[in-house]
Write a structure and sequence with these properties.
Layout: E1 6-9, H1 17-28, E2 33-35, E3 42-46, H2 50-60, E4 69-71, H3 75-78, H4 86-95, E5 100-105, E6 120-124, H5 129-138, E7 142-146, H6 158-164, E8 170-173, E9 183-186, E10 193-196
Parallel strand pairs: 1-8, 2-8, 4-6, 5-9
Antiparallel strand pairs: 2-3, 3-7, 4-7, 5-6, 9-10
Helix pairs in contact: 1-5
Length: 205
Amino acid sequence: MLASAVLLEINPHHPEPRKISRAVDILESGKLLAYPTDTVYGLGCDLLNKGALDRLYAAKNMPRTQSLALICVDLSDIARYVLLDNQAYRLLRRLLPGPYTFILPATREVPKTIAPKRTQVGIRIPAHPVPRAIAQALGRPLISTTAGPHGGEPLQFPQDIATSFREIDLILDGGPGGIEPTTVIDLTQNPPVIVRAGAGPIDVL
């Protein structure tokens, strides 16, 4: 299968602003993007574009019940989209940016297309400049899911992502990615529940 995505090399430590701008243009036009994170490569789209969200689910052949995460810039950004009590805030302040996805109660800022009942949503702040720069330039969170087949292993190399996901329009190539996804922690339950053990240590709880 021939790749259709454009691969664009990007500095993973100091992403070039013009390349971030190109990624934002892709997102604002309703297209799909792949990008490096501090764990695995991610596939993403604009939070506010329902058509792009539909394309993302179709690209991975995922059921609509499959949760997606929001990549935020910082803790103040997170506070717009989830409800944080003092205990949750302290935990996030200690662990983020980092290889974690936290499930928290969603606010009304989260579109129904992401959380139909607006009850909860996954959020993360990666310890990687590229996705945070994209979210900052976009002005809202980036919807994110693992760049790999649904239920399968993450794809480590940008070229493999290009050949496996013809629906992706632009891949920001920051070199080989990781193979272990984030640790997912559900903070809507007390005590918190480890939904998936991944790259982030769980003894921090």
